[in-house]
Please model this.
Amino acid sequence: MPHATTAPAPRPRPRWWTELPLLALVYAAYSGGRLLVRGDVSTAVDHGLRLLHLEQALLLNFEHPLNRLLTAHPSIGIPADFAYASLHYLVTPAVLIWMFRKHSSAYRWARTWLMTSTMLGLIGFTLMPTCPPRLLAAGHGFVDTMAQYSSYGWWGTEASAPRGMGGMTNQYAAMPSLHVGWALWCGILLWRHGRHPLVRAAGIAYPLITTFVVMGTANHYFLDAVAGAAVMGLGALLARPVMRLANRVSHAALTRFARVRPATKSPDVSAGCKTSTGERIPGQRTSSADPTDAAAPAGPPAPADVTVSAGRAAGGDAARAAR
Model:
């Protein structure tokens, strides 16, 4: 008969009290790194102009017509500014929590994909600081809608940062657009794991709306959006190798800790004392079912016992005759 094969035990579900510090640490590293990689402004402007000229040569300059649309129509421009300033802070964590609660088997991969892509985006900010269209000279034809409609929201003239906190953001971290990258991550997961048609429709609409918003508000070029999607694609390819590397590092750390940790022995209550076969501990009661008692032969007493009993009886008769 063939041997039965056992399926590998499923990995335990991640714990929220370990996930929260990990996500907070990665986001803090990303935010701190984004502030530290501020490049020279003139270099960032040069990179922005090169992207704009390349798009114009390839007929990919979608930013100008979209920016004019949002500038001319506040009914579109104001909601777009709100979307740019808030949605990536709300939708991305919401999808991550949804994956954690409803699709825990795919959560580790989704979380690793998001973190890996975010770190790749930080590398892009370091290598290519880029001036967004809204910060170019006015002669290039762009209007900063965030500044135009700043009285309607909490932001000022420095992108989506709250008024007075512009120093806490890097306005030249435009290439790649992680607004688009994170929206694409959300959209793919909603489409792949959503069961309701509305959820799957949101998975298609959200990345498209985000791409429209980042270009219409003049915060990103079209090529920034393309780079954001490319970063997420590369992050998806690297997610499983990163998970395997993390598992090896974790296993090596646990093994090393187990070697360093002193072994604990259980106390020896016998103190080296042993009992031989058949020996009883003093005070131990013998059970009626003891095999040694059950094996004793039944019958008349041995001859020696009969002689002793007869002698005792004769002595008693002699003593009575003498009285």
Notes: The radius of gyration is 41 Å. Confidence is low (pLDDT under 50) at residues 1-8, 287-315.
